[in-house]
Amino acid sequence: xxYALPPPLAVPAQTPRFQEKREALLQAAVAVFNEHxxxxxxxxxxxxxxxxxTNSVTYYYRKKEDLAIACALRAIDLHDAIVAEAATQPxxxxxxxxxxxxxxxALAEMERGERPPAMHFxxxxxxxxxxxxxxxxxxxxxxxxxxxxxxxxxxxxxxxxERNARGHLLLSAALWLRVWLWxxxxxxxxxxxxxxxxxxxxxxxxxxxAWPAADALPEAGWRLMPRSGDGADESTExxxxxxxxxxxxxxxxxxxxxxxxxxxxxxxxxxxxxxxxHDNKDDLITECFERSFAVLRAALVQAADAPGSxxxxxxxxxxxxxxxxxxxxxxxxxxxxxxxxxxxxxRDTVRITLHQLTQRMAxxxxxxxxxxxxxxxxxxxxxxxxxxxxxxxxxxxxxVSDAGPDDAAGLYxxxxxxxxxxxxx
Length: 425
Fold this sequence. Notes:
mainly alpha; Tetracycline Repressor, domain 2
């Protein structure tokens, strides 16, 4: 499945050699931006990968930010092409299937070297103006097109907030494919994405019975983090405040966009206070990951030990984590922040831990398949869909500005667990 791409820049064609070098420069830049983030990348590193002197890059792009926006817009163009092809399908389920399998096909082509790699969208907000304004405007248009795939008689009962929340779920599921499809051979990518589409459309729970009334949520008494009065002293509370502020800033602006100055300013404290609690920012980001994994682990452990069916316990874990994301204790650090870590060993540790925790979710799903509360399905793929949706909940307010922990369960976790086709709560 091929998708035509426009030229990387709207400039007059020059010589074939110019175009060849510019294409090589774009591909090298994508690799560097994906690995180090926009702020962490340097023109020297990008130039070195294509055998150019650093100052020669300015012949093609005046600044690093111009190169970054060219890469980002090219990725959005590819995404828009996939959405446009999916939009030709007659029903919501067929459009969702074609959208996710179209992404998987493009990822397989990249893996086989048949298509240039695409830039990740992790650092769009870390770009300076005017590049960030242009990138965000195009990304917002892209989101609206994805949301449009869910418009049909099957979903006519959904209000604007529900459509936005489910559009965010669908877009996030597509972007999450690259996090887990690497576990399969490229020839399997499309088939596994089709399995994920079925999970997205119809959920994991065997029916709405797994979704209790709001006043009877079994996870209501769960503790995912220690709080004041639970033995946490003032110093621990202050350190945790830094972790929350750093996590939110990294999610918004990437690692290098979340400076010590910005973290301190968000808490209205001095840089000296920051260094009283943390030796350096790298250690802080590592602690942010550890905190986020501790929260995810706590929810999964409590779900495993809770009474009830496997499906009910999966739903309970999902609700608890989505509520946490939108609470004063949240958010969790996005998995895309792995590029923030200082070295490959740290990144590998994070990926392995995330994989292990996802397998815990898969174990709960297996329990549900056995007791009949979860539909028969590939539980490993279903766990990826569920964990990916939980991971993306930190950005729900980008599209539903008034979303909060009190309505997060019905607005977001419910379609994650019962499927995009489920009626509104």
